[in-house]
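User: I'm preparing a small set of examples for a lab meeting where we compare how different chains pack in three dimensions. I only have the primary sequence for this one, and I'd like the structure in token form so I can line it up with the others. Please keep the answer compact; I'll paste it straight into my notes.
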Amino acid sequence: MARRDDDYDDDDVPWLAEVEEERPASTSVSQRKLIGGIALFAALLALIIGGVWAITSGQREGGSSGEVAVNAEDVPLIPADPGPYKVRPADPGGMQIDGAGDTMYAAGEGADVGGALDPGALPEDPMPRPGTAAAQPEDLLPAEGASAQVAIPPARGTVAPAAGASAQVAIPPVRTPAAPPPVPVAKPAPLKPLPKPVAPVAGTPPAKPSTGSAALQLGAFSSSAAADTAWKDLTKRFTYLGGLSKAVGKVERDGKTLYRLRATGVTDAAKAADLCARLKVAGEDCLVAP
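Assistant: Understood. Below is the structure token output for the 290-residue chain.
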């Protein structure tokens, strides 16, 4: 038998029951909270405006920040110092610096300062090596008629005499060594007369005196007179060149005529090298020439 609809209960079928519509939660702010927020914002704004007004009014009226001039006439005027604005110095050239006018700067720029060499700058002669000098004899013997006093230490086991007592010490006499026997001196042989010089044969040039095997080349000059002047100056400044002979030779070089100055008569090449070295130390030009 068929079942009627009244026989069904809503509790038996819950999905068929009526459901109440859900309402969303209210997100609006209450009127009281809204009024309080507006009042707080207005108070903060009034506080900021009041602070700005207080600062600006204090600056205008001369507050703690200092006096501020409003008009240009109120700016203080600073007077200038009495006296002239500029004073010409007593020394227009400026401060003098030590060494500013030395000849070294002019010589470095190529100017002729008219300097002269110091002969005292030449190298000194070498000193003898230690031990090579002759020993000086010492006079160990007393002078004739003088009494010799010799301090003799007391022997072991003896007592020294008391102060004030006279002590007599026997001093052996000093013996003077006998003089060596005289050395016989050989008599010199009689001198032979020198041979008379033989007159040279007519047409044959006389032989030149013998000279050394080396020479010093001291420079080349534009004229013979300039070479002679240089030789006189060198021999005057360097005395060790006085024993040498002057030789001026004419040479042609690059289409120019030069007069070469040489000092001849040097014994050997070693001596010539030594003389050249001494001249170079003094600032002169020198070359060993055969």
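A couple of notes for your slides: The chain has a mean pLDDT of 72. Residues 156 and 169 are 16 Å apart (CA to CA).

User: Perfect, thanks.
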